[in-house]
Amino acid sequence: MTLSLEEQARLTAGATMWTTGAVAELGLREVAMADGPMGVASGKIDEREVSILTPAPVSLGASWDLDLLARVGALVGNDAIARGVDALLAPNVNLARSPNAGRAFEYYSEDPLLAGLCGAAWVRGIQSTGTGAVAKHFVCNDSETERDTMNAVIDDETLRQVYLLPFELACEAGCAGIMTAYNRVNGDWCAEAAHALSIVRDEWQYDGVLMSDFFATHSTAATLNAGLDLEMPGPARFLGAKAADAVAAGEVSAERVADAAERVMRFARRFGGDKTPADLDANTLLTEAAVAGMVLLRNDGLLPLAADLPTIAVIGPNATAPCYQGGTFARIAVTPDAPTPLAAIEAEFAARARIVHEPGVDPQPRLPAMPVVPALDLGDGCTEGMTVEYFTGHDLSAAPLTRETRATNSLVWFHGVHEQTRFNEAGAVRARGWYTAPASGLHRFYVGATGPVSLWVDGVDVVARAEQPAASDIMGVLKAGDAAHADVALEAGQRVAVEVQFRFAPARAQGLWYGVRAPDTPDAMLARAVEAARAADAVVLMLGETADASVESKDRADTRLDAGQLRLAEAVMAANPRTAIVVNVGHAFDANFAEGAAALLVAWYPGQAFGTALADVLAGKREPGGRLPVTLARDEADYPAFSLKPAANGDLAYGEGLLTGYRGLRAKGIAALYPFGAGQGYTSFALGEPRVDGGAIRLTVTNTGNRTGSEVVQAYLAASPFALVAHARVTLAPGESAEVMLRPDSRVLRSMAGMASVTIRVGRSAEDVPLSVEFRLG
């Protein structure tokens, strides 16, 4: 059967928010997609739609374990099948060019080869289940500041050798598709970036689907002629039927539309069929993966904790409020039975030690939870959360269209996805619940929304915001998540009715968020924490971020942890030098504050098994196996790319060229605080002399310690740009030796074309490469 031009054109745009078009006549059903990369995100961003939450890509990248990445990918693919999802919008193979990038937790590394190898391994894993992987965001979407308008200005050599390389590896792994980004590259919107897309289509001979990020198209002819095949989401805005019109007007060839339709159909044939999920042990794998990514940077022998410690103080906000992920639209609803780090530590150590806990600082500094019980019993078994009612129009005296109980303090709705009411028409939401004050004093109530909103406490309007953002600004307001607040005096045990009223104007998305903070003072929290530390035999100090610290459309201003947390760290280490600091972040950070700690462990965002994995590491049941996938510089000025603010004309210059990350520090002779590739476990290793054997480098690794552990051997091109060319991870028992093989990557070495041989440095990090060999090219 041959499709008509109109039928082909229809396939160039999605049918709905999350699906492609179907071709019933050819037996092709739609392809159902979901966002990633840490699991199968709910299309409704609904806390009740729980999925498996894996470690963040930065944590997986820290494992340097490609087999593990493939197994994690397969686990996600298995979960996608169970949820009726055919393809995931992942992996994210952009680079952590700056430590301040808002979505750095979604990037595997600052190094293009490591990022590409990790992304490719994850692609192979998820696609082994029959679930497609759509690599994103193509290309140079390495920051969030003004990402909808900024223009990445980059030379062709840097584009190809650094920022396209991870996508090249994903394509070679057979990824289902590539998603173009919101930004511009050298003046062209990414969906219209003909030069970059021609490299994918023509030079790499990639035959997968090239699709836009959601609402990231700006034209019809320019988009199709550049090589994009699929506009998302549906219904169409610029492609679809307009593609046929463009052919009729002579602006686009009929062959180009036919090619786009064929690529979409190939996508559907390959991934749109029925699949059967496998029976996988998710808990075991997620714990293994979380541990494998934890990077131990300092240890004077405190870790693992001795079995005979009488008292262990677990201090810090992230012990009970861990940060599992960033605040993107791809966030995963975490299973409610995931133990917090504190709960897991108590379960592991309570039989032999007394565990005390103090947060030291507010665990929810920006938007606290709203711990209420529903105003109405809807018979849904929910005993926590707000009763949420939906209305057509702004009249809250009318009967609500629908009601539900929502145990979250942040609600997001998309028109066409959520069916409670029509969010592209004027409407209203009312949320109600009962709050019981845990202490006497001033309670701070917060509320924010994408339109006029007010918050009432026992019938008194305490917060009101009348602003109605333009429809074009709704997504920015939603992503920023700013809230107004007011203080209300309550007595301990006092029960008050809380009501939030939100009236919205037509838009494609809406949002509402609220919370309440019980009375306590920073000085009192700090004093309790210091006293607990002073009385303990060892301290586990858990610092880091909240979910709104790493977000879409916003980059960080600096690399430092919260000032209150730094104050806490200084005071706790002064009170008890036997302090192990655990840092729960998703990016490179200023680690200077921890120089006085007995141990420093970077946990990243380690997924739902965070608590169990950390307890195992602290107890010595498992070894922290990670190595840094990013550089931790001594000073922010040392990072080759730091500022992410475009110029007044929107240009963001990639002026460091090939010398990104550790490459730039080495070129300037600057030592990092903790270099790329650094990390240690609970044992020690010796590296033998490397030798060249055909197209590989071989050397013997020996475990010289008294515990089983892992080493990551790394090989770097000595010539500028000093760059990772290979690595090998090996696990050995005490006294055991093994030969490892390093095969320098030809894609990195192609910049050395014309040379007979190159020097390869071998060692344990970008700054610890004492061994070298001459490696012949060609």
Summarize the structure.
The chain is built from 18 helices and 34 strands.
Essential attributes:
single chain; 778 residues; alpha/beta; TIM Barrel; Rossmann fold; Jelly Rolls; 4 domains; seven-stranded antiparallel sheet; six-stranded mixed sheet; 18 helices; 34 strands; 23% helix; 24% strand; globular
Query: What percent of the residues sit in helical stretches (DSSP H or I)?
Result: 10-25%
Give the assembly state of these chains: single chain
How many domains? 4
Q: Determine Rg (CA atoms, Å).
A: 27 Å
End-to-end Cα distance: 48 Å
| Annotation field: number of helices | 18
Sketch the major β-sheet.
7 strands, antiparallel
Give start-end ranges of low-pLDDT stretches.
none
Q: What integer is the average pLDDT?
A: 96
The shape, in one word, is globular
- CATH fold category name of the largest domain: TIM Barrel
CATH superfamily of the largest domain: Glycoside hydrolase, family 3, N-terminal domain
